[in-house]
Amino acid sequence: MQVRPLGDRVLVKLVQEQERTQSGIYIPDTAKDKPQTGLVVAVGDSEDIKVKEGQKVLFAKFAGTEIKIGNEDHLILSSDDILAMVED
């Protein structure tokens, strides 16, 4: 299945947080926060979008609509919900 967002929307693949602490303790799924970073997979056709495919972004905590494509979690959100670009 291929998804192409419309307008000022962005499709983001969620990036999972580390599964254990620096000291080696595993964090159960129930204690993890919802991820706030993701990789841009596709962008809509609006000229106002400032991110491009392949960029890592930080977005608002409860933004967007979660969808599952294959076995991976994705998020469709408005470009206004993207707070920053993450550079490694």
Automatic annotation (TrEMBL):
Similarity comment text for this entry: Belongs to the GroES chaperonin family.
Claim: Cytoplasm is one of the keywords in the record: yes
Chief localization: cytoplasm
Organism whose genome encodes this protein: Candidatus Hydrogenisulfobacillus filiaventi
GO cellular component terms listed in the entry, alphabetical order: cytoplasm
Localization, UniProt: Cytoplasm
Taxonomic path: Bacteria, Bacillati, Bacillota, Clostridia, Eubacteriales
Keyword Chaperone in annotation: yes
Quaternary context: Heptamer of 7 subunits arranged in a ring. Interacts with the chaperonin GroEL.
Pfam families for the chain: Cpn10
Stated name of the protein: Co-chaperonin GroES
Its job: Together with the chaperonin GroEL, plays an essential role in assisting protein folding. The GroEL-GroES system forms a nano-cage that allows encapsulation of the non-native substrate proteins and provides a physical environment optimized to promote and accelerate protein folding. GroES binds to the apical surface of the GroEL ring, thereby capping the opening of the GroEL channel.
Key words, A-Z: Chaperone, Cytoplasm
Record-level Gene Ontology MF annotations: ATP binding; metal ion binding; protein folding chaperone; protein-folding chaperone binding; unfolded protein binding
Superkingdom assignment: Bacteria
Family annotation (InterPro entries): Chaperonin_GroES, Chaperonin_GroES_sf, Chaprnonin_Cpn10_CS, GroES-like_sf
SMART domains: Cpn10
